[in-house]
Write the structure tokens for this entry.
Amino acid sequence: MTDNAFKGLSPQEATARVQASLKLRKAKESRFRLMGASAIGLALLFLVVLFGGILHKGVPGLFQYYVTLDVELNQERLDPKGDLSVESLYSGDADALILEAALRSIGEEGGRKTKRALRKMYSSGSGIRLIEYVQANPDQLGTTQSIKFAVDDDIDSFMRGFIQRETPEEDRRIDNYTISIVDRWQEAGLISYHLSDYLFFGSASRDAEMAGIKGALIGSLTTLFICISIAFPLGVAAAVYLEELAPKNRFTEIIEININNLAAVPSVVFGIMGLAIFIVAFGMPRSIPLVGGIVLALMTLPTIIISSRAAIRAVPPSIRDAALGIGASKMQTIFHHVLPLALPGMLTGTIIGMAQALGETAPLLMIGMVAFIVDIPEGFMDPATVLPVQIFMWADFAERMFIQKTSAAIIILLAFLIIMNAAAIMLRKKLERRW
Amino acid sequence: MAFSSLFLLLIAIGALFYFAGKRRVDHARAAGQTFHSLPNYHGLWTGLLALVPATLVLLVWSIVDIQLFQHWVRDFYPAEVLAAGGSQEVVALAKVENLVAGVRFGEPEAWLVQASDAWMTWSSTSTWLKSLFVIGLALGCGLFSYRQISPNFRARNGVERIIAGALIVASTIAILTTLGIVVSVLFETIRFFKLVPPTEFIFGTEWNPQFEGAERAGSGGGTAVYGMLPMFVGTFLISTVALVVAVPVGLASAIYLAEYAKPKTRATIKPLLEILAGVPTVVYGFFAALTVAPMIKNIGEALGLTVASESALAAGLVMGVMIIPFISSLADDVINSVPQSLRDAAYGLGSTKSEATRQVVLPAALPGIVAAIILAVSRAVGETMIVVMAAGLAANLSFNPLDAVTTVTSQIVTILVGDQEFESAKTLSAFALSTMLIILTLGLNFFALQIVKKYREQYD
């Protein structure tokens, strides 16, 4: 709009022209505003769709179908040596006892066909479950107990309606005969649906119905423990040095440039470094939480340093001056006055860094924490996997039930992250000081 | 004695000296003497002096002795192993170490038994010497510093020097990490470029690392091709899709939050948006592969298009959602830092809010916004899990977002996950790709900083 536009117009005409354009400009204004609001709406919609999708698939994954079988806990057959030792129990006949219980549940003597069908209907890990039951309740030997076993993943999918009765038999993963047994179980009220203990207490398994996250969760916790015990002291120390002690020189400048660059390096590159340095050059074993923790610590270090520096900077100079004024040394000022006041901010940054480390997958793939590990890790040097990597592996399996299990594991991971972030926010709110 | 128990013992010795030193000063003070430093500092000085030098020696010794053994044990290798060199020696070393650890595969050969026996002798001798020396050192240093205690001794200054030293060491970790990253990719990359010429790698339009028999060093005539362009085009394609989603949504959200939203709305919406940034990438990958990709395929096929089941579009869309909060919060900061006086001037001339924003605030904030977008690109380029799970592995040189493409990061993961032969060109190619990835992301970062530096207006 140039001045010329109004040249030679009377004031009335000029006002009229402005008035005329005003409507257009107001419309433009509200369009602009609407655009911003709808962008936020769109972003929030993505959030809702993402969480809704995960919850929709994952909440049913926290549950699974069980069949209750009356198993005869026959002492001689379960525990042939009679000493309840692991060897004795595993040489026993747990599988056969479960099969007999299953046959009794449908009231049949059982030909070969029935037995074969039945064996495929409950989880193949049921024998181990029975042995663990006996180990936990040795006094019940010799009695008959109702014990719940997971149904096979195909039966589970059938119960959920993913496998349809109407589908022609040859296209279905389970045959008509199996479905008739399921119907009989259901009539007898033997099938139940509740919170999955396999998911929480089971370890990695190729069988969807038995797969659980316990091993991965413990792996995640040990890895995080290593990560925090390296990253927190180092990060705080570096922040203290850079904020309080460092002279302004080339060396300090190089450190700062390095920290900023490290914050921009893709996480997978840290994994490559871990592989090349810790595993190949130092000869440390693959897949162990120790290496995983070190790699994640180096990755989260910039986050912790940057937030710790901000926290230290937020402590007003008057505190330092007061301490120095009554004769404290530089170190005493830092350790007795500045650090305690900056601690909440540093902890907040550390928790956020740890949440980042807990969700990280790519660097851990590089150092081999992706192996299929059945044993629950017991230390920093045991092969382990972590929750996000477990999710990554399960996402690759084809069985329908793994989709639910993966989503359930995601819900658990997200729950941990939300708790950590909420803790960080609470901490900040509670301990934050305004100077 | 094992490393950890020896270390624990050293800590115990250090603690002992701490208490001894502190007690001595406490008593002297009770008797009326005045000291330069507080008792605590005398104790710390004595304890630290007992602990630190001995621990350092322990560390160095434990690292060096194994290297030495590995060198000495080569005398036992049969001549043909030494002649073959390289991987043969690695295998021989692994055999010896297994035997030392007590792992036996069948009946070990004679030289192996000798080697492992010798190894065990060295190892036990070294452990004995190490334990003696380290404990002696700790006690010696501790006693020395204990005797140093006197009213005029400046213990606090000594302790503070040690602490300052430790702080400096901690802050050099960042440099060491950078160095570690550079070293770990650089050497392998150079080795890769000896097998595959750099020009072929950088300008090659075909990527097919699958044929292991086609090592350049070997017979030749193979069909392995290492040209990185398809991956970079794939990365570029997916990042572009991501930015097409993230830039408008993120920028418009930032404008709304900074200019229109009430403080209360802002305080609720900002953390909500940031949840998107906190979701682990593996979750996005799962979502992309399981929900978005089939949806896009179905829609595309309903429209009569051929869509790959692992299309670049799916991975890009989900990645775009992931970087929305990244752009929105950076841009929000930039817009907020534009001084209010500029807006007031625009309002004073009669402009509406949107006119002020578009014609005054945004131009002033532009350098910062551009930098934010570049940082988002660097983020998208380095993103791994979404593309590993949703973008597939087909190295197509294609600019069509409906095709399946692969990216630099997903190739790196595919090549390096699981067992690999360390000498093969295929493994080395992952390191070369990483070098390119690092150069690209750091370059983008540097570029963003330069833009901010160069075009930042100083308003105050």
In short: Residues 155-195 of chain B form the longest helix (41 residues). The beta strands of chain B are 207-208, 225-226. The first strand of chain B starts at residue 207 and ends at 208. Residues 27 and 258 of chain B are 65 Å apart (CA to CA).
